[in-house]
Design brief:
- The protein is about 25% helix and about 20% strand.
- The chain has about 230 residues and is an alpha/beta fold.
- It has a single domain, classed as Class I glutamine amidotransferase (GATase) domain (Rossmann fold), CATH 3.40.50.880.
- The strands form two sheets. The chain has a six-stranded mixed β-sheet with strand order 2-3-4-1-7-8, sandwiched between helices. Strands 5-6-9-10 form a four-stranded mixed β-sheet.
Length: about 230
C-alpha cells in the first residue's frame, strides 16, 4: 500500500530547509533505517554529494539515517532502502536521470510496495502521470514526459494565483494549465506553497492551511479544503 508525502515546496517563507515538514517527515519514516535520497534534480555543477549532506543535516536530528551517496551504487541502494526522498530542483533534469539509469520501473515498484516516499517540488512533480505541468524550464531533452504514474493526475507545485493590479501582461499559471488541457485529459492540482498531499493506498488527502485548486478539462476550476480526499475526483 502506497505511503507518500508530496509537498509543493522544500521550504516556506521565514523557515529553514524542510523545517515546516519535520513532524510529517518523522511520522512518514518512523522505523526506517536506510533512507535513500535521490539528488538528481540539481544540475551537475551543484554537487550531488553536497545536496545529500544538506538533507542529512535535517534528517539526522530527527533520528533518520540517509544512505551515503555513491552515484555508481544508486541502483543497489534502491534495492536495500526502506524509505525514499526526492527533493526539488529541475524536473526535466531529474526525470532524464531516472530514465538514463533505468530507474523508472524499479522506483515505481518500490513505492507501490509500500516503501515510504517523500517528494518536494520536482520530487512531487514526477509522481503524476506526466511532468507536463511543471513550472521548470526544459534545460535538457527528456526521453519522455511520462512520469512515475503513482497518482492518476498531474500536479502544479508552487501554484500562484493571479495578483489583482499587477502590471504583468504574461500568462498566469491558470492560463498555462488551461493550455495543457487543450491537448491532455488528466486533471491538475494547483498545490500552493505549504500544502501537501498525504497518500495512503488509494486515499489522497490534502493537508495544510491553504486550499488547493483543481483544474479539469472542459470545466471550471474549483478549490478544495484541507482534509479533502482526492480519491473522490478520480
Amino acid at each position: 500500500m502506497k505511503k507518500m508525502l508530496l509537498a509543493s515546496t522544500s521550504a516556506i517563507y521565514g523557515q529553514g530547509y524542510l523545517e515546516y515538514l519535520h513532524d510529517e517527515i518523522r511520522a512518514l519514516f518512523l522505523g526506517c533505517k536506510k533512507i535513500l535520497f535521490i539528488p538528481y534534480a540539481r544540475p551537475s555543477g551543484i554537487s550531488h554529494l553536497d545536496y545529500t549532506k544538506k538533507v542529512e543535516k535535517v534528517f539526522n536530528p530527527l533520528n533518520l539515517q540517509i544512505i551515503k551517496y555513491r552515484d555508481e551504487n544508486l541502483r543497489e541502494s534502491l534495492k536495500i532502502c526502506d524509505g525514499i526522498f526526492i527533493g526539488g530542483g529541475n524536473t526535466f533534469l531529474l526525470l532524464n536521470k531516472l530514465y538514463q539509469y533505468n530507474m523508472i520501473d524499479d522506483l515505481r515498484d518500490k513505492i507501490n510496495s509500500g516503501i515510504p516516499y517523500l517528494g518536494t517540488s520536482a520530487g512531487t512533480n514526477i509522481c503524476g502521470l506526466t511532468i507536463g505541468t511543471t513550472n521548470d524550464m526544459p534545460i535538457i531533452q527528456v526521453e519522455s514526459f511520462k512520469a512515475l504514474e503513482l497518482i492518476h493526475f498531474n500536479i502544479n507545485p508552487h501554484y500562484l494565483d493571479p495578483i489583482n493590479g499587477l502590471e504583468h501582461m504574461g500568462e498566469s499559471r491558470e492560463t498555462r494549465i488551461n493550455e495543457f488541457h487543450k491537448l491532455n485529459d488528466q486533471f491538475v492540482v494547483g498545490l500552493r506553497e505549504g500544502s501537501t498531499l498525504h497518500v495512503l493506498g488509494d486515499d489522497i488527502f490534502l493537508k495544510g492551511s491553504k486550499l488547493a485548486v483543481i483544474f479539469k478539462k472542459g470545466g471550471e476550476k474549483f478549490e478544495i479544503e484541507s482534509g479533502f480526499n482526492l480519491k473522490n475526483l478520480i
